Amino acid sequence: MTIFQRILNIPLSSSIFYRFNSNSTIFALSSGLGKCGVAVVRVSGTNANYAITQMTNLKNLPEPRKAVLQNIKHPLTKEIIDKGLVLWFPGPRSFSGEDSCEFHVHGGIAVVEGILNALNSLPNFKLADPGEFTKRAFLNGKLDLTEVEGLADLLQAETEAQRKQAFLQSTGSLSKSYKKWKDLLKQSLANIEADIDFAETETLDYGLLEKVEQNIKNLCKELENHLNDGCKGELLRNGVKTVILGEPNAGKSSLLNLLCHRPASIVTPISGTTRDVIEVTLNIGGYPLVLADTAGLNINSQDVIEIEGMNRARDLYRKADLIILVVNIQSYSSVQERYVSFNDYLKNYISDLGLSDMNFRKNCIIILNKIDLDTRNLSANICDKNVVKLSCKSEEGIIDLIDILTKHLKVLCGEPTQEHPSMNQLRHRQELEKCYHNLQRFLKESERKESPDTVIMAEYIRKALRNLGKLIGEVTSEEILDIIFKDFCIGK
Ligand SMILES: Nc1nc2c(ncn2[C@@H]2O[C@H](COP(=O)(O)OP(=O)(O)OP(=O)(O)O)[C@@H](O)[C@H]2O)c(=O)[nH]1
Ligand SMILES: [K+]
Ligand SMILES: [Mg+2]
């Protein structure tokens, strides 16, 4: 039961009942719950005008989109609940596309409760389900499905780059490309259908089919580029999975704590302290980083708990987008004479950790930790832009670390722009892969030596069109909509 249902004492089943009643007028607190300066209560639906005429002294509806100050009263008891701003948004020029209005009242819990109770007493008014305003906007054609997803992401965005990506998507940058592709396919289909229907009886443009083929080939190239983007958008949306690896006592947990500014992971001088994976989510330079501290890798260990911890560390290593390898300068110092260079030592270190297949130049940052203990000044001879010299104790080198982390994140997540928005959900990728596949089958048929079957070719384009239609929500199912709208909060 939601807090609103509790406030209004509305039984749970009623919201399920109303789900099938799209004629109802919905209302909800759209600003955050709790004491605050101003609370915004939103109303949308055929009877939205009642909320104004029944709850204020206005005889007529106010001028659209202009705030008016009014006493707001309960429609039955006529008791004044609060004085606040009232706004009227006649459809279709409203967020949901329906007649809508808003009450901006004082953000006290009892005030909000009073307004919600007053609205609930109006005929055919009901508390909105999570995301119901947006769902109505989608069903009224105000937003397509990728824009809805962008809006959901905008509400969830925790970093600047995530906000940027979500905002671009919510304002249609992604659907613009998809709609352009759809128009091209529609045109191609019309041309092929013309060929099927009239080629034998009428003279059609010479080379019409060849033109279609060339267009589809170009589209396939564009689709390839869009699909082979290194999953940048997905990484930005979900966070870059980063794992800290290294020998026991290298300072992995100290590093995690330093980056998240709190003692999230236990630090002791005892080797083998960390066993479970400790995960934190950070905002580094506007990019989301999902950072995991792991058990130190010690291939000689006989301890079953430590071995299980190491298994978990190696499992994360295989799934990680970015690796932070921690090297203890004291360990290097003790054997430095045996190696021609630090690089040489590193290779051996990595193989000793059982990470021999690791490509430590790609998406890997090497941390030379404990430089406060570098009494022999060994670090002076190490000049590698991928090696950060750090002391988790004195925090020397932390700025370099943040710098190099940000650089890696920028490359991994990319910088989505209006012209080149990134796709960022598995749903999009799957639908586009199917679309690409269907176009490939079209090209295969068109390139057949014996006369290609234009009916089959048309069918592949129809299928590809359906894939794009699903992507932007022209073809959809209640099931998909439920998944997408469940991420919204009440009032949006
Ligand atoms: N002097 C100094 N000590 C450090 C530094 N970083 C970590 N330590 C110390 O090194 C010891 C081990 O640190 P941890 O962070 O627990 O190391 P770990 O790699 O997580 O160790 P395990 O979880 O056991 O694998 C602790 O006593 C830390 O205080 C550093 O930069 N300088
Ligand atoms: K330790
Ligand atoms: Mg540790």
From TrEMBL:
Domain named TrmE-type G: residues: 239-410
Keyword tRNA processing in record: yes
GO cellular component terms, A-Z: mitochondrion
Coiled coil: 182-229
UniProt-listed InterPro entries: G_TrmE, GTP-bd, GTP-bd_TrmE_N, GTPase_MnmE, MnmE_dom2, MnmE_helical, P-loop_NTPase, Small_GTP-bd
Subcellular location(s) of the protein: Mitochondrion
Gene Ontology biological process terms, A to Z: tRNA processing
First-listed, main subcellular location of the protein, grouped into a coarse class: mitochondrion
Segment forming the signal sequence: none
Keywords: Coiled coil, GTP-binding, Nucleotide-binding, tRNA processing
GO molecular function: GTP binding
Domain of life: Eukaryota
HAMAP family in the record: GTPase_MnmE
Entry similarity comment: Belongs to the TRAFAC class TrmE-Era-EngA-EngB-Septin-like GTPase superfamily. TrmE GTPase family.
Name recorded for this polypeptide: TrmE-type G domain-containing protein
Species: Hypothenemus hampei
